[in-house]
Design brief:
The complex is a heterodimer. Chain A has no helices and eleven strands. Chain A is mainly β. The chains are: A mainly beta, B mainly beta.
Chain lengths: 107, 123
């Protein structure tokens, strides 16, 4: 199985900050990586696919980059609604696997 | 707009079989571009992909659960189902059904999700 490791596990920031979350794969996954946002009690919501493609309807302050084994999710200017949990997911190979999550909290 | 809705018992006894159904609306489960998945999330923890099915009945399972999992599809009802046998407390989780687009079309990410259903394992 491909292991996905996110860092940091918790990130403290303020409204208006620019933040970056990193996801590392245990082997190359090309650009087959997605990012999700999950709010309490809700299903994950797709933000980014193919490492850098923005899902329709997702605000442009979200962006993704990377390829191979290292990927980043950047939020350019944090809004109050952004303080929640983020997951990465590889879909290069079955079994599809997720990172353990990054909790973005208000500083 | 595609919608997915999970249903099934919220409480299962240890050693018994967990059975859930996902009803798809707003689109056909027989779409040639869609695969249908089950994903679970223990309370306060991360996400685990359980397995996937195509409308033809072709399946892929997570090796960690493969011996206990069966995913099936009923195209006449636009539903997919999950059975997980010999459950223990470690299987307690929110179970989601989801869709991913065919890998041949660059898919594999989950773009539609159900709201999730919590299953508790207790006698």
């Amino acid at each position: 199985d491909i292991q996905m490791t996110q860092s940091p596990s918790t990130l403290s920031a303020s409204v208006g900050d620019r933040v970056t979350i990193t996801c590392r794969a245990s082997q190359s996954i090309s650009s087959w990586l997605a990012w999700y946002q999950q709010k309490p009690g809700k299903a994950p919501k797709l933000l980014i696919y193919k490492a850098s493609s923005l899902e329709s309807g997702v605000p442009s302050r979200f962006s993704g980059s990377g390829s191979g084994t290292e990927f980043t999710l950047t939020i350019s200017s944090l809004q109050p609604d952004d303080f929640t949990i983020y997951f990465c997911q590889q879909y290069d190979n079955y079994p599809y696997t997720f990172g353990q999550g990054t909790k973005l909290q208000i500083k | 707009q595609l919608q997915l809705q999970e249903s099934g018992p919220g409480l299962v006894k240890p050693s018994e079989t967990l059975s859930l159904t996902c009803t798809v609306s707003g689109g056909s489960i027989s779409s040639s571009s869609s695969y249908w998945d089950w994903i679970r999330q223990p309370p306060g923890k991360g996400l685990e992909w359980i397995g996937s099915i195509y409308h033809s009945g072709s399946t892929s399972y997570n090796p960690s659960l493969k011996s206990r999992v069966t995913i099936s599809v009923d195209t006449s009802k636009n539903q997919l189902s999950l059975k997980l046998s010999s459950v223990t407390a470690a299987d307690a989780a929110v179970f989601y059904c989801a869709r991913h687009m065919s890998p041949s079309l660059g898919g594999g990410y989950f773009d539609y999700w159900g709201q999730g259903t919590l299953v508790t394992v207790s006698s």
